[in-house]
Amino acid sequence: MERIQDLITILESQYALYENMLDVLRNERESITNWEIDKTIELAKSKDTLLYKEKLLDEARNKLLKKIQHDTNHKSSTLRELVEKIEDSEVKEKLSTLRRDLIHITNEIQSENMSIKMLYNTNLKLISDFFEKIGLFEASVYVPGGMGTKKTASFSRSA
Q1: What is the pLDDT of residues 48-94, one digit of tens each?
Q2: Count of CB atoms within 10 A of residue 4's CB?
Q3: How far is the C-alpha of 149 from the C-alpha of 139, rounded, in Å?
Q4: Distance of alpha carbon 3 from its chain centroid, rounded?
Q5: What is the per-residue pLDDT across 16-47, written as a single tens digit (0 to 9) for each?
Q6: Sign (positive/negative) of CA torsion 106, 111, 115, 120?
Q7: C or N terminus of the chain, fewer CB within 10 Å?
Q8: DSSP structure string for the chain
């Protein structure tokens, strides 16, 4: 039962971390929209830190799940399978709620990531269009490992 409580603690920590990540992503979306480069760079650093923490929490959760599997002789590899095998209704409800909340917040994070990806693609297209208007075009060049593209100056004079 102690390991189950430890698992609940880890899941709650993951949820709190995901809430922080969602806030950072929302701030990043706003900073990209407003072209606040310094803020965007700082938020990217914050995301890196949060991703590192998430990796540690995920490893701890996986190790704990393996210990629980070993202790109970159940081969439940997912949280849902583990929840189904727990008999204590309070613990079962707590784990079910955490699982549902984690799924919900990770879906929100995915949605924010997609919005940010679209903003970056749009901004890159605007920048590319700007370079084309001032006479800088993409050209195919050979780079180590194959063909690539490179911005090159291509100015023309009209008489």
Answers
A1: 999 999 999 999 999 998 888 888 777 766 888 888 888 888 988 99
A2: 19
A3: 5
A4: 28
A5: 999 999 999 999 999 999 989 999 999 999 99
A6: positive
A7: C
A8: -HHHHHHHHHHHHHHHHHHHHHHHHHHHHHHHHTT-HHHHHHHHHHHHHHHHHHHHHHHHHHHHHHHHHHHHT----SHHHHHHH---HHHHHHHHHHHHHHHHHHHHHHHHHHHHHHHHHHHHHHHHHHHHHTTEEEEEEEETTEEEEEEEE------
CA atoms within 13 Å, Cβ hemisphere of 25? 21
CB atoms within 10 A of CB 29: 18
One-letter amino acid at 120 equals: Y
